[in-house]
Amino acid sequence: MYTNIRNIEAAAYPEYMQYLQEVHTLEDMQEYCESKKVLVLEGEGWYCICGKNEVVDLAAISKLSIQEMLYIGTELKKWFGTKKVTLDARKSTSYRLIKFFSRGGKVSILSEEEWTWGEDIMVEMTIKFN
Q: For 63-115, what is each residue's pLDDT tens digit?
């Protein structure tokens, strides 16, 4: 699992955004998430990592299918319930997924604020699954 995640991260992100390259164990993942409670979802060419109250990372090396997006949404709803969740979404990728869920009524966006990380526009968000 960890090798697959590191490979996807290396392909999906520029080097300055890569923090999973040293994650080799559950303890490493818990430290990365700053949480003892961790959820890792993965599929063919994508992964989603969550801590107790945060979507820590979502990466894909190709466009997610509708089935994959719905699977991720369903699993995140199970994990977080209706509590507030924070995340930093890359505007060119995962932000689109959150907007997809929002348009479908599955997520309420409580706040969003853009910021820049290197050459990427990011959006700090607080959301709630409906």
A: 899 899 889 999 999 999 999 999 999 998 889 889 988 998 999 999 999 99
Residue 17, number of CB atoms within 10 A of its CB: 16
User: What are the start-end ranges of the H helices in 64-129?
Assistant: 66-80, 94-103
Are the C-beta atoms of 54 and 86 separated by less than 8 Å? Answer: yes
Distance CA 106, CA 88 (A): 18
Do 6 and 23 contact (CB within 8 A), yes or no? yes
The residues facing 124 across adjacent strands are: 88, 113
Question: What is the rounded distance in angstroms from the CA atom of residue 123 to the CA atom of residue 114?
Answer: 4
